[in-house]
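This protein record is not my work; I was only asked to verify it. Take the sequence as given and treat only the tokens as open to question. I have pasted the whole thing underneath without changing anything:
***
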Amino acid sequence: MTGRPGAEVAPLLPRDPASVGPYRLAGRLGEGGMGTVYLATDPQGRRVAVKVVRSHLAADPEFARRFRREIDGARQVPPFCTAEVLDADPGHDPPYLVVEYVDGPSLADVISRDGPLTAANLHALAIGVATALTAIHGAGVVHRDLKPRNVLLPPGSPKVIDFGIAHALRSSRLTAENQLVGTVGYMAPERFNPRPEAPVEPSADVFSWGAVVTLAGTGHEPFRAPSAMATAARIISEEPDLDGLHPPLRDLVAEALAKDPADRPTARELLDRLLDAGTVAHDTTVLQDQPDLRAAVEAVTWRHTMPGSRVRRRRRIATAAVVVVLLGGAAAAVPLIRDRRSPDRLAAPPATSATPSAAPSPSASAGTEWIGELQQSFGSDEPVHLRFALDADRGTIRYPRLGCSGTVTVTQRTSEKIVLAERIDKGHCSARGDIVLWPTGPASMLLDYKPAGGRYTARARMTKQ
């Protein structure tokens, strides 16, 4: 997406706390059914988004239990067009969730201010949100409340936030038995089922994708009506208004908005067809001009490869879905360099048990060399060399231009990622930090780095030599 003004930050209100846990609050980013979102700084001075849960929800033991469990699941969603969970304290009074801060406006704000997106930006948005849903669904998560306000537009690529929160609200005993949780204009027809216990499938997110893309391309919702009840009635019984969208994107949106969930494409099928030259006919260079979006697409398409030819999905017997609570944050972070500040430890995600062989790791010997170029948030790029086998426990890292080198040690390995603790023992780079490796192909991966005590982020696309 093209660069746009940053996210709007409102002043704190008199009733707002000055801090939550170790995070100092600096302003208000928004407020919803679950709580209030604040712009804050962590102990190292990095900007983050902190969502503070409403006190009446925090008092519900069932909500607290689900909140804790789903946060653990949220950590497993790869940061491909999504934001990362950084910290959470379900036992705090009040409970809170910390995510990366995304410095960009919501799609809803952009459309309200500027009107529909241009053809190039519309295709980038459609690809970015489909990429996010592919990653989310691939981790066993259903968003449940995808809407324009949950799509942020920082420079680089769109970011989807808040996936799973609607499920947490619905699971609470404090939610009325038949109360719908979601935004009506973007809810699939099956969501209006009178049985509140009916599971929400990933196909409902695909319907929401179609509604979001319609608004982005036309400036209006596909089932717009004077009231929420009238909108719901149109969703259930009438065809969408897609005036303003043009084929072939219009045809794909129409399929996503099918009444029968079995007639909708999957998120991965959406992405495959959006990447088809015919669908992106208006701007075949959309990925060439946006390296962040291209990297996310490459990562997701390799990770969630579909065997054989494309087949229409049939209705499935409902199974229990693993759903997580998550809010959104900022542009994905990565490697460190030349930071002489004190090496305060950054809390790593809780370790999870996973069979190493289950990870989509390229075959590599103990001496495998990976080379990349760190893109740092303050503008300086630095080469990085990592010697590490993806099934090993230790490796070495060096930053040749800076004269820094050290060791990396595995602290967590799951089917999606490998977390490393870095310790620099030569040179004047940050002494300690956390690295996350996201394999994206047989000979490539993304490397995210968070320096302990650092005030910047960095990212590298690594290639096996």
Residues 1-332 form a domain with the Transferase(Phosphotransferase); domain 1 fold (CATH 1.10.510.10). The first helix runs from residue 55 to 58.
